[in-house]
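@channel sequence for tomorrow's demo:
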Amino acid sequence: MFVAHFAAGFAAKRAAPRISLGTLVLAALWADLLTWSLVLVGVEHFSIQPGITTTNALNLYDYPISHSLVMDLVWGLAFGAIYYLFRKDWRGSAVLFAAVMSHWVLDFIAHRPDMPLSPGLHTYVGLGLYNSKLGMLVVEGLIWVVGIVIYERATRSRGWAGAVLFYLVVAFLTLIWLPSLNGAPPPVTIHKMAQIDVPAIAILIAWAYLVDWLREPTVASTKPLASRAHQAG
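structure tokens (generated this afternoon):
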């Protein structure tokens, strides 16, 4: 999955309007940001194997720290705990946990059985949607559109910049995603991909923070229980 992970961050804005879109996208993309960082330093490993699936030429054979179910649960709990430490907002913490875990769920749908359950446990799962170009186009495309619509309805632009910047990058991501469904091997090495993807993900997260700063929630902000109790007192 590619744009579906962004869609998960977009959709989470409605459930947690107090959290910046940048933080929500960071949570939804955390597994990918982590794995490419670990590939750079030689801790996790991929290879390029044309034809391994219809729409993705990457052989993702060693990434238990970033993409195993157990470790993603750990990362999700860490995101939620850190947010609660600063904001005292259980709802926001739960949404961030769900955003992190959405990555494993979406990859489980798309990947061949290469999704690890835990480091050290050689059990792998995956439904294999990557083997159907039409399936990826329909399923991921639908998730992408729904995520965009939910975020667009959950926020409104404070000016023209908030709308233009949001849709420019949405269009850019769509134009990258559609050709990727052809399954052609990348024209670079895995290490070069990591060198490109780590800063690219960081830039897109920064974009999400900027977009959210240029927009405002249209749904009521959910205040932490501690804040409501203080006001009631």
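heads up for whoever presents: The longest strand covers residues 58-62.
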